[in-house]
Predict the structure.
Amino acid sequence: MNTMKPNIFNLAPKELSQDAFFTWLLMWADNDLNQNDKSLNETAKNFVRLLLGQSSDYQINKVKAGRQWNNIDIWAEVNNEYFICIEDKTYTGEHSEQLERYKEFITNHLKYKSFKHVFVYLKTGNESLSRLNKIREKGYVVIDRKAILKVLNQHSISNAIFNDFKEYLNEIEKQTNCCDKLEDIISNWHSAEGFYIKLQENINEWTDWSYVPNQTGGFLGFWYHWIVIEKIGELYIQIENAFEYGIKLVIKIAGWEQKIDILYKTYNEIKLIAEKNGLSITKPERYRVGETSTVAIIQNAFQSENNNNFDFNDFLITLKKLEKTLDEYKSQYDK
């Protein structure tokens, strides 16, 4: 039996470990280290060029780097010309207006007044595309895992630390791209995220997804297509992936009076329209009244063939039917 090679980053997946790796890699970009390991030095330089948005002909001579300075994860000075401020993320997102604070601090710092400032959001885990767009709106360049791997996979390097991190990221990328089978989507967290990212790329309206905690263990949720109906509330489409507890497509309600009569009334009215559009819906086993509640569950939304292949395009058709159902319900109610 083959024994799997131990990888230090599987044992130390926290952001502090990743901070250390990227700071180490930036330090290797200094031209004085070219004689120590030419391939690693050139890869590190390409990483710096990626952060700066520079082409391959940009010469890198001097690089200084460090971490955890005034709560900034990673910083680097390049050629006494650029100052790079890096917010490094694995699986968490930004919070507490931290990006705005770092930007204000660096912009006003006397030592770096003459430097060109580059603000980078470095993301090796998966994150909703709509949330990444908000990061860009704050003046940060988003560097994702694909872009990082393009640099790391470019050269053959013998350094064990480098190769462990590269293999660690390549495995996350592989799992994220394995979302063609329903079994993977409901058993592997990265594959489930990859499915949601693929949905975001194929739905032409605002969407979002994230983990939703609750008393039963929570789920990875995806939501979009909000419609407001007077005297009822806001209805929207949601996918709930609770993994071993199953995955379902539902109609949710929010911003409402939180009366159970509204759930029954809304369900009965939507059911007729859904059936006309080729959808079969059912009530939850028990209605629960809360800030957001489930109105209906779409039956047989997640179909897989005998080989467990998940028909993504067929699922998109189901979503279109559901969008149409909610739109027609709003139109009918408005009249």
Remarks:
- The mean pLDDT is 92.
